[in-house]
Amino acid sequence: MKTHSIVVSVVVLACLTSVTGRAAQRGRISGDGFVTEGVPRMPNPPGPAPTRDLSGVWVGPQNNKPDPVPAMTPAGEAQFKLRKPYGTASRSDGLGASNDPFITCDPLGFPRNLLAHAVSSRGRMIFGSAPDRLLIAYEQQRVWREVWMDGRALPKAVDVRGAPESRYYGHSVGHWENNNTLVIDTTGVDERPWLDEVGHPRSSSARIQERYTRGDQYNLQVTVTIDDPKFYTKPWTWMRANFYWVMGQDFAETFCIPSEGIEYRDSLARPSGIQIP
Q1: Distances in Å between the alpha carbon of 138 and those of 3, 118, 145, 261?
Q2: Alpha carbon distance 140, 153 (integer Å)
Q3: What is the per-residue pLDDT across 19-67, written as a single tens digit (0 to 9) for each?
Q4: Is 2 part of a structural domain of the chain?
Q5: Which of 4-8, 17-21, 66-70, 178-182 has the lowest mean pLDDT?
Q6: DSSP state at residue 131
Q7: In the chain, where does DSSP find H-type helix?
Q8: What's the CA angle centered on 205, arms 59 and 214, to 5 degrees?
Q9: Looking at 78-82, 130-134, 262-266, which range is the least confident one?
Q10: Which residue has the higher pLDDT, 243 or 91?
């Protein structure tokens, strides 16, 4: 499998989980400076965190400990029932049909892209900058977000007259809470992408907050909370995980390529009995 082309990874994930587990037990995973858990080998002790600076390449998430998904509203339940994940024991038995948008290489959207949707369950992101904003690019699908740092307000509504359109990765504004914690608030997400691998929904009016706390030179704690009263009965912490500095600062290229997805579907998946639209 080419490193730049992870095809329909939501489909192959179930098949390759045991393979990657055995590889981890054998020792090093490919990539300079990485150990079995996907954490770079760091100098001990690490140096102090630079002031208000996340620039560079990070890998994760690791040790993710989210809250349980809260009860959904009737509108949220209705959306959830329409979604068919691939090979997820909590929603289906064995292999079966799936309507995950990523099967046809649709954008993962935010915040699902933070899950580093890949066989390894970890991926890289890189922080950069431009006038009045931060830029965050993600290895998976090589997409990027802009986070405005100029004090502007988030849109109060989307997809109505006089308001901006919703976006797969939302509208984001950020600020520094202190010298090592970046806070990003996002709303106005397009409702078509899934929130996670099992198909939980999120509405365009959801408010999603990310908190990035850099404790030292090499460690980044990431917390993501979701407040979506249209679909859920209470806010909750969707991600509570660690990201780590990439020693070589290499930023991989990982695409879902529609033509290869179609080839996989027609030459392997359907002949083996897997039901894919």
Answers
A1: 15, 12, 9, 20
A2: 29
A3: 333 333 333 334 444 444 556 666 777 889 999 999 999 999 988 999 9
A4: no
A5: 17-21
A6: T
A7: 9-26, 74-81, 258-264
A8: 25
A9: 262-266
A10: 243
Average pLDDT (89-116) is 77
Say if 3 falls within a structural domain. Answer: no
Strands 123-130 and 207-214: unpaired
End-to-end CA distance of the chain: 23
On whether residue 54 sits in a domain, the answer given is: yes
Let me know if 272 is exposed, middle or buried by CB neighbors in 10 A (0-12, 13-18, 19+): exposed
State the average pLDDT over residues 170-187: 98
Contacts of 132 (CB under 8 A, 6+ apart): 148, 149, 150
Task: Find all residues with CB under 8 Å of 37, minimum gap 6, and list them.
Answer: 24, 62
Whole-structure pTM value: 0.83
Residue 43 inside a domain? The answer is yes
**Cβ-contact 203, 228 below 8 angstroms:** yes
Burial class (CB in 10 A: 0-12, 13-18, 19+), 143: middle
> What domain range is 62 assigned to?
9-269
How much helix, strand and coil, in percent to the nearest 5, is found in the chain?
15, 30, 55
Q: Is 183:210 a contact under the CB 8 Å cutoff?
A: yes
Looking at the structure of the chain, the number of domains it has is 1
Which value, in Å, is the radius of gyration of the alpha carbons in the chain? 19
